[in-house]
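[audit] Reproducing an earlier prediction to check determinism. Same input, same settings, fresh worker. If the tokens differ from the archived copy the diff job will pick it up downstream; this log only records the rerun itself.
[audit] input (417 residues):
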Amino acid sequence: MATIAACGEWIVSTCDSKLISIHTKQDREPFVFDCSAAEKKPKDTESDNKSDDGGADETGHDVILAVAVSPTGRLAALTDDSKRLVLFRCDSPWQCISTRWVVRRCTSLVFSQAEDQLLVADKSGDVYSFSVEEPHRTGELKLGHLSMLLALTLSPDDRYVISADRDEKIRVSHLKSPHNIQAFCLAHREFVSSLLIPAAHREWLLSGSGDGNVILWQYESGRELQRWDMRKLRELPDGTKDGEEEEKRSAVSRITSSPDGLHVVVQCERAATVQMLSLEKGTEDRLTPSHQLTLPHCPLDINFDPRGRLWVLLDSADTPFQVYTHTQAGWQRDADNAEVSRVTEALKPYWKDLQPLAVAESRFEHLYKVNFDNMESYMEKKRLRLEQQKSHWGKKRMTGDGNKTPGKKRSKENKVK
């Protein structure tokens, strides 16, 4: 999984088993953390010999599954498919604070606003809380869903934990007492893959799904405010017929917001465009589709830096990064940007690890519902059954009264006598 994030003046990218942090202002040696060379799991850990479904343990490949950056950019964390949870301090230089172990492979991480907790969602549907202040303390189970969790976020005041799962549910729970559910946000028709609370509206929640929709909620009440179908907003490429693009599954893979909260950007899988949603004057209570960036390659990930610039990680060895800045003329690419050049050159030695990450294959494909059309087979079985019945009764008609045995007839006559 390839990701991009900003930690202050550092741009952080992950690919395969490596996390690479590159300073944008100075020519410093990049910080590289390789999970394949990291601390191994102790043999006496409780979850040894237990897989994600309770069977024999499956060997992980040290592939990074999720990354999170704290609100101030002071901390970062990652988790991989070998069930590591690694905490970093993003100073100069970077420092690995601790390596802990999770019970199940994780899908999403989020720091609390106070940066004292790191919440972890896993594929079995559980959310654990890990202490930041006690970096070697084991996690505490907070809440659970009945299906795989895919996204997790916290309200800006750390009051609510918002979790989304494969069964289209978004649950808003009280962080201090997670058994107390504030609301459900229910409207998606497929798994919920992305959550975001935009900076400008602390009461809003944006959710993206495998159904291709982005929905804006008032999350405390679970009320839907707006909805956009990303497939309909997307400008069709030349030569594409109407409806042809809509037939392709394109899950929403990332929703991110500028630091001032005025711009929201939506990324969908296998689409060489990203959609902008903006808060415009006179419509401060609504988001409006404002612009669409057409990219030379499909993006692997997108994110804003603290200065409000949009960084795009592309599926391209030659130009892995592009940066866009908002001006009066709209979103413009910073073509001759020294920071982009510095980050690109620093990342190139590790780019070979990104090559197997082809975006042509969806990382969400296995999460879609499988619909079985039983009607056709049912009707065929019914037709055969009716034909057999007709054939059976036809044979009886051809034999006439001969189907009544003489013995039965005599017994009836004896009764009359």
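[audit] rerun output stored. Observation attached for the diff report: Confidence is low (pLDDT under 50) at residues 46-57, 236-246, 405-409, 411-417.
[audit] end
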